[in-house]
Structure prediction request, 130 residues.
Amino acid sequence: MRRIVQFLLPALFLALLSMPARSDPQGDFAKAKQLEQDGNLTEAFELYRSAATQGHVEAQLQLGRAHANGLGVPQNFKAAYVWYDVAVKNGSNPGIYGRRNAEKKMSDEEIAEAKTLAQRCNDSGYQDCE
Prediction:
């Protein structure tokens, strides 16, 4: 038994050290809003993404908006659709309009690809979204 404990404790410690640090999604969202207001769109986008991948619905909506309008990232309607769809599936009514507007900018093939990406994003717990 002692040998098992001697083996498991260091292994557990190493596993904990290798886990990525998670930030506070609400804090990241608040910082992102301030950065956006200050005009630092690239840093704001990164913090929105951090919050969104942790399930923050408003951050997911903001990522859709950022992609749709090219705010801090190149304009990308498929990525906008993905994040709007994720937000909608998490209860965001404004995301419905954003998703609909993104669809208007894409071909049927692009919409199908975006729907597949959105499903993958949801299935991965928001970790595989781009």
In short: The CA atoms of residues 18 and 101 lie 41 Å apart. Helices lie at 2-18, 25-37, 41-52, 57-69, 77-89, 94-104, 108-123. Confidence is low (pLDDT under 50) at residues 12-20. The two ends are 46 Å apart (CA to CA).
